Hints:
The protein is α/β, with parallel strands linked by helices. The chain is 44% helix and 14% strand. The chain has one domain (3-170): NAD(P)-binding Rossmann-like Domain (Rossmann fold, 3-Layer(aba) Sandwich). Strands 3-2-1-4-5 form a 5-stranded parallel beta sheet, sandwiched between helices. The chain is globular and about 50 Å long.
Amino acid sequence: MPVAIITGASSGIGKGAALLFAKHKYTLSLTGRNTDALNEVAALCVSEGGLSADDVLITAAELSADDAPKKIVDATLAKFGRIDTLINSAGILRSGPVLESGIEVFDEIMNVNVRSLVRLTRAALPHIISTKGTVVNVSSITGPCPSEGLNPHHPSTILFHQPLGHPATVENDSQLR
Ligand SMILES: NC(=O)c1ccc[n+]([C@@H]2O[C@H](COP(=O)([O-])OP(=O)(O)OC[C@H]3O[C@@H](n4cnc5c(N)ncnc54)[C@H](OP(=O)(O)O)[C@@H]3O)[C@@H](O)[C@H]2O)c1
């Protein structure tokens, strides 16, 4: 069975992706910080997605932590032996008036939404290239749109399209999608 790592799997789009991939018979490596919520999603992937409990791995991790990419990739390989797909769905949204939003807000958004995405993708990529697999970055159609106040979330989503956005950026003959 193909193996998908899904970040942000405890909620929202990542949770929905987990159930969808379960129904498509992927084994799942789910990550987020909220262990209770991750366990609920894992149970859903079994009860509604048709997987066995052994087909779902949970790795609770703060994505911006130094050791998070290695922890998630190593745990996935130890359990399933391969990685076919990485769904980068973890993300945070902060917004507010410019004068009330310090640069630390910008830094937090960029750290979680962009830097952590790039670090995890780099850690998983050699294994995804070897399976001719797929990386999906969950972005936002509102990214290019002007918004009220300081909203670093929007520029952060635009960046998802670029840093690792084209297979040729990675390796010309990788067949990565
Ligand atoms: N929902 C929308 O309408 C929409 C529209 C456009 C774009 N997006 C983008 O899609 C992505 C997902 O959105 P969503 O609506 O699914 O959000 P959500 O329901 O708030 O879920 C966010 C997920 O990210 C995880 N997460 C956040 N910070 C983390 C951190 N520091 N370390 C590890 N995990 C972290 C959360 O896990 P824990 O809570 O377990 O830590 C949670 O599973 C975001 O990047 C968002 O900008 C969403």
